[in-house]
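Methods — Computational structure assignment.
A single polypeptide chain was analysed. Its primary sequence is given first, followed by the predicted tertiary structure written as structure tokens.
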Amino acid sequence: MELINKLERIVLGWVKNVPHLPATGQKWLGVNVWWIALIAAIIGGIWFLFALNGLFSLLTLLSSVSNLYYVTNTYTDYAIFKAIIGLVFLGLTVAALAFAISPLKDRLKKGWVLLFLAWIISALSIVVSAVLSLSVIGFIISIIFGAIFLAIGGYFLFEIHGQFAHPTKRAKKV
């Protein structure tokens, strides 16, 4: 948790000088972010199921004796590896979004932290998938577009940062 707080402070330092949304826009976004997270979790869950179906289809194709001759093991093993890595990142992101919905409704800091965690997982996913592309052009394109989408998501995420209840530190009872 300390790492998340440290990353939060670092990113807050980055976005403090950027132009901000009007107060009404920030308030609207803060109040309605829970259903935006709900829609993102539902779409991500559906995407996860389709990707899982695709992985199972690939495994079924590989298990077919008649098609095994036409498929090289190196390519298919790597494709399966990339698919599993992508599914893990997608599952973690969807889980973080799904767990964030209820605290976001109550406007608790925990909900915002879970959104931030989903944003960090997405950033890691972009970097890992860019590296696993094994192509210089693919790497560059993935990093550029990934950075653009992360910047947009991070901007809106940190626009609502102050609207969620920060827990106060309580004295420990002895």
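Note: The chain has one domain: 22-163.
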